[in-house]
Amino acid sequence: MPDTTTLQKASSISERSLRTTVPVMITRHFKLKAGDMLQWEIKAKKKDEFEIIVTPMKKRSVNDGK
After folding, report:
1. By the 8 A CB rule, do 17 and 35 touch?
2. The predicted structure's pLDDT at residue 28
3. How do 18-19 and 49-57 pair as beta strands?
4. pTM strictly above 0.90
5. Residue among 50, 60, 65, 55 nearest 30 (CA)
6. Separation of first and last alpha carbons in the chain
């Protein structure tokens, strides 16, 4: 089932940076918490259509060695 979010300005300084809320159905499914990261990939489909692939990544711990 699709979900809709509204983009908001990320800061009062920049008009180009926007933020949105990750819907609760996504946070529950992937067990996301504050501080976790999302990796974004954009793929062109057609002239005015694109696909966004979002991969959840857990917050790195000090022991990850990265």
Report:
1. no
2. 92
3. unpaired
4. no
5. 55
6. 37
Segment 15-61, tens digit of pLDDT: 788 888 888 888 999 899 888 888 989 999 888 888 988 888 876 55
Q: Where in the chain are the domains?
A: 8-60
State both tokens at 21.
Answer: 């809320």
What whole-number distance in Å separates Cα of residue 7 and Cα of residue 12?
14
Residue 52 CA to residue 60 CA, distance in Å, equals 23
DSSP letters for 3-63: -----EES-SS-SS-EE-PPPHHHHHHTT--TT-EEEEEEEEEETTEEEEEEEEEPPPPGG
Interior/surface letters 24-44, b for 16+ CB within 10 angstroms, e for the rest = eeeeeebebeeeeeeeeeeee
Q: In the prediction, which pLDDT does 61 show?
A: 55
